[in-house]
Amino acid sequence: MSPRTKTKATSGRNDDIGEATRLGLWRQCLEVRHLEKRAYDLFLQNLIKGTSHLSLGQEAVAAGFGVAMRKDDWSFCTYRGHAHTLVRGASMTGVLGELMGRECGLLGGKGGSMHLTSVEHGAMGSYAIIGAHLPIAIGAAWSAQYRGTDQVAVCFFGDGTTNIGAFHEALNMATVWTLPVVFVCENNLYMEYTPIGEVTAVEHPAADRAGAYGLPGIIVDGNDPDAVFRAAREALAKARAGEGPSLIEAKTYRHSGHSRADPGKYRPDEEVKAWLARDPIPMYRKRLLDFGVKEAVLDAIDAETRAAVDAATEAAKASPEPALAVIERDVWADGGASWRN
Amino acid sequence: MAELTYREAVAAGIAQEMARDPNVVFLGEDVAAAGGVFKATVGLLEQFGPRRVRDTPISEQAILGAAMGAAMTGLRPIAEIMFSDFLAVCWDIVANEIAKTRYMTAGQVTLPLVIRTANGGGSRFGAQHSQSVENWAMAVPGLKVVAPSNPADVKGLLAAAIRDDDPVVFFEHKSLYAVKGEVPDGEHIERLGTAKVLRDGRDVTVLALAAMVPKALAAAERLAAEHRIEATVIDVRSLVPLDTETILREVVKTGRVATVEENPRLCGWGAEIASIVAEECFWDLDAPIVRITTPHVPLPSADNLEDATVPTVERIVATLRQAID
Ligand SMILES: Cc1ncc(C[n+]2csc(CCOP(=O)(O)OP(=O)(O)O)c2C)c(N)n1
Ligand SMILES: [Mg+2]
Exposed site from A33, A45, A266, B151, fewest CB < 10 Å? Predict the structure, then answer.
């Protein structure tokens, strides 16, 4: 099955997406961009420890789905999951606080950057073992199907993840059980440091495998919020209609290295330059201006999101470290950690 | 009271809970139409239908991942891993995901699920289908670990595991599936985290689990009849939570303690209990702690080799005699 590419040019301001939705996409892209930049700055200031994986350059994927998903849908993402957690509606203070190891963090300091979760927003977790959350996402989809709700589980992962067994187990079972789940592969061309093409049998790591699981191979421009939104909308509708899973490969690129420690020097300059020229945010801004959206409107959203990140940063800095008492809390459903009487 | 086999008690426990709670679902390889490779789930598909009792592909990560995702969104799944040895191919989901997610999310996620699995030796299946891996599960914070020794406990502890809001790894012993025993009529549920004193004696307290329980009881009878040694025998039943109250109380009474463990020696469950006993009632002990375990080898398959590797009644009798003389 040859991949179908969905990058159809958009018609104009009042097309199938419309201005209000586009402004929502614009806002979410900016929220992620500004928050991730702040996370990077806070590292340099040593206020964030450990590791962290930014979505700079990949904002359009999270935003496209964030806007298309329903509030009661579920999302599952990876350690590169600040963006996906934020777009579901989790608070910036909760995200930055968790990165900084503060009491106000989404997980009260017990999870860290790689495990952001906000169940009240349907953000069902960030998973740091490659591939683990694909099978977990099908379980949520199974539960929606079993209970007869029309909720959908959306599962984000990287190109490298298509080479681990859990990917294949989950895709197969999702199709066999006709589960309402959308698998979203963010193909940023690299695993940690190794180009995906060097270690993968096919050109399109997700789309070329889709046929093996009875699914069409779908490729979208992951730097175009409209393209991602349209693909998301279609896949979500298919899942809600009881027609089963989708697998979408979104082509994108990370602007920074794999993680905090990585300057990304293994990438050819030309490649980096070409992708920076396709930075989703200036591209989308231009499209919105071309569609006649007023610059002042775009700038106001930009200013608002920057201010929100500033306020969240201050709130997180002001939050105390977690109380040591939480160490022995919440192993069990009774709230405790006791393993004996 | 009805007489059921251990395998019938599995199906009875699941059926009791599925009838009671529509959120209980069951999945695994060959569990529905075929009724399980050990025939422990026969009849469930007929009784509860294919929506609730589901055959899966050979995809252990997908089975346990699906159970986890379903549990975190409101169902109470029971997942079968055909042989406990196969936990190794989905250990990420068990140890990294299921066990840790509640803690990492500061209690946002609740995982009421049960992983049922056939554990242990005695069937000449060789080293990859015979292991006793209860100590693997015991070593991971966030998992409850249960291993019943008789049909009544299978039903009662399985029901308790299904109703529990935490993940429970439920080790069924494959050499016990054919064993018969009385099971209370009507709804039957036990409490997790409770050991059971099966025999009272003044000389030594013997702690055993699953298939080692009948062996420990048989050894105790022989010690009494042939050597006038009276042993207390405790069925530990639950490794996590661990009923240290019962265990320590009975150890103090006799001043001697022995464990009978099917897991290989290093880091077996008895090592943890031995350390608790040594720390907390050392001055009540009259003799060194004794551990009777499978030696630290993979399990061989020939009849005589397997029989001589796992603790036998003879070995238990001989070891205890020597320890007490
Ligand atoms: C099972 C497993 N193997 C290896 C790793 C180490 N690791 C972390 S991220 C990563 C690269 C993943 O690449 P990809 O799926 O493309 O995601 P990306 O980081 O590009 O978003 C690797 C190998 C891991 N976390 N888990
Ligand atoms: Mg990648």
Answer: A45
Interchain CB distance below 8 Å, B70 and A134: no
ipTM over 0.90: yes
pLDDT at A7 (0 to 100)? 46
Q: Name the CATH topology of B2-183.
A: Rossmann fold (3.40.50)
Average pLDDT over residues A29-45: 97
Q: Between vectors from CA A35 to CA A103 and to CA A151, what angle results, nearest 5°? A: 80
User: What does CATH list as the number for A6-318?
Assistant: 3.40.50.970
Antiparallel, parallel or unpaired: β B180-183 and B2-5: antiparallel
Scanning every residue of chain B, which has its alpha carbon at the shortest distance from the alpha carbon of A103?
A: B106
> Which protein residues are within 6 Å of ligand 1, measured from CB?
A 80, 128-130, 157-161, 186, 188, 190-192, 258
| Closest atom of ligand 1 relative to the A191 alpha carbon | 13
At A5 the pLDDT is 57
Q: Does B186 touch chain A (CB under 8 A)?
A: no
Close Cβ partners of A213 (under 8 Å, ≥ 6 residues apart): A168, A171, A172, A174, A175, A247
Domain B196-324, CATH among 3.40.50.920, 3.90.580.10, 2.60.40.640, 3.10.620.30: 3.40.50.920
**Tens of pLDDT along B273-293?**
999 999 999 999 999 999 999
Contact B105 A115 (CB under 8 A): yes
Q: pLDDT band at A1, cuts 50/70/90?
A: very low
- Residues A256 and A253: their CA atoms lie apart, in Å, by 9
Cβ of B108 within 8 Å of Cβ of A339? The answer is no
Confidence of residue A260 (pLDDT cuts 50, 70, 90): confident
What contacts A58, CB < 8 A, 6 or more positions away? A80, A83, A186, A188, A222, A252, A253, A254
Angle (deg, nearest 10), helices B313-324 and B212-227: 50
Tokens encoding B19:
């009838």
Confirm if B270 and B134 have CB atoms less than 8 A apart: no
The shortest C-alpha distance from B24 to chain A (Å) reads 11
Element spanning B323, H or E: helix B313-324
Rounded Cα distance between A340 and A336, Å, is: 11
Which 8-state DSSP code applies to residue B22?
A: T
